[in-house]
Design brief:
13 helices, alpha/beta, Rossmann fold, 11 strands, 6-stranded antiparallel sheet
Length: 353
């Protein structure tokens, strides 16, 4: 049997319960482990943290806090790889299509695992492991898809799924004795109770709530916003990363003129828009409390006034229907306009979700 101390495995670590358990299972077999986390930019946790931060000098993405927490005090090197720039090509042109929303899960896995194979070769590692569970995800974790992903990424035989390994074909690490197949598991299906029981057994008492994943692309409400954007875009490949960032926050409207409005709902979202929509026209109330709204930088005066009226309808006015003074901010230019708010009933049909 090959000496395990000479074996190096790369764990694809999201920081969720499944990948945390997979890491423990492999490391506890005496295998040296390095952790790899890919950052697509569509993670719930990163954006929610960014929404609520008040220090605008801090970046939007704070890094994989959950992955770092999953490692804890175990001395495992963690490599964080930001793949957000190239990821839009995967989103726009998935060979294997979308799931229930705008989630290209199979192509996403192939993309990540292909990148992971590069690290396997660069680091001289022997195999890669993940926290995937057979049958857990409706699009990407059935038997056929798991095999397809391993094959298309070039990792066939060297991609181990410890939580379901006993239900899957034997891999090179098992065949070569680098890991003991008898100590791997046969988890399957969508229930997380077996994982939670194992976590308790292993003393893992701090992990994200194991439900529903963490990707915006699987979220129905976010998916509606993406599809609406695509419906009003001639060529998806002309969209920028910021276009997708801004879909994550605020109330969103499409006016009859075709103008898109994004409006903050609280202080955190207002700050978010102030920082991440600097190239856009910003509209905010001068004399009363209310939201920040952003619109396209090329909007004409009529559209600016329409956006200001929509914004005014969500301001805290002393009397219903009172005219509101609004600041219109474009780059270093600030001017004021006074508008009558729309009635909420009038604009309800314009709200995307």
């Amino acid at each position: 049997m090959t000496e395990k101390k000479n074996i190096l495995a790369i764990g694809l670590l999201s920081g969720g319960l499944d990948s945390s358990l997979a890491l423990r299972i492999i490391q506890d077999q005496g295998v040296d482990v390095r952790a790899l986390t890919f950052h697509t930019g569509f993670c719930f946790a990163d954006t929610r943290r960014a929404d609520r931060r008040k220090d605008k000098s801090r970046p939007l993405h704070q890094g994989p806090a959950d992955a770092k927490q999953a490692i804890g005090d175990r001395e495992i090197p963690l490599e964080v790889v930001d793949i957000s720039d190239g990821y839009l090509q995967v989103l726009h042109h998935p060979v294997h299509g979308y799931g229930a929303n705008v989630n290209p899960c199979i192509d996403c896995r192939i993309h990540m695992f292909t990148l992971a194979k590069w690290y396997l070769e660069q680091w001289g590692a022997d195999f890669i492991f993940t926290g995937e569970v057979l049958g857990q995800r409706p699009m990407s974790q059935h038997f056929r898809q798991l095999m397809l992903i391993a094959q298309r990424s070039g990792l066939e035989g060297r991609l181990l799924r410890p939580l379901s390994a006993k239900l899957l074909p034997e891999t090179i690490p098992e065949r070569e004795g680098w890991v003991d197949r008898n100590k791997l598991l046969d988890f399957h299906g969508r229930s997380r109770k077996p994982q939670m029981a194992l976590a308790e057994q292993l003393g893992l008492d701090s992990y994200p709530q194991p439900a529903g994943g963490c990707c915006y692309l699987t979220d129905p409400e976010y998916g509606k916003r993406v599809k609406e954007l695509w419906d009003h875009t001639e060529d998806k490949d002309n969209l920028r990363w910021n276009d997708y960032i801004l879909l994550k926050t605020g109330r969103q409207f499409r006016l009859p003129s075709g103008l898109k409005i994004i409006m903050g709902r609280d202080e955190g979202e207002n700050l978010f828009l102030e920082q991440y929509a600097k190239e856009m026209i910003r509209i905010e109330p001068e004399t009363v409390k209310g939201p920040v709204t952003v619109i396209e930088p090329a909007a004409d005066e009529g559209r600016i006034r329409d956006a200001a009226r929509v914004t005014a309808s969500y301001c805290k006015q002393p009397e219903s229907g009172t005219a509101v003074v609004m600041n219109v901010i474009s780059g270093d230019s600030v001017r004021q306009i006074t508008v009558e708010p729309y009635a909420r009933e009038e604009i309800a049909a314009w709200q995307i979700n």
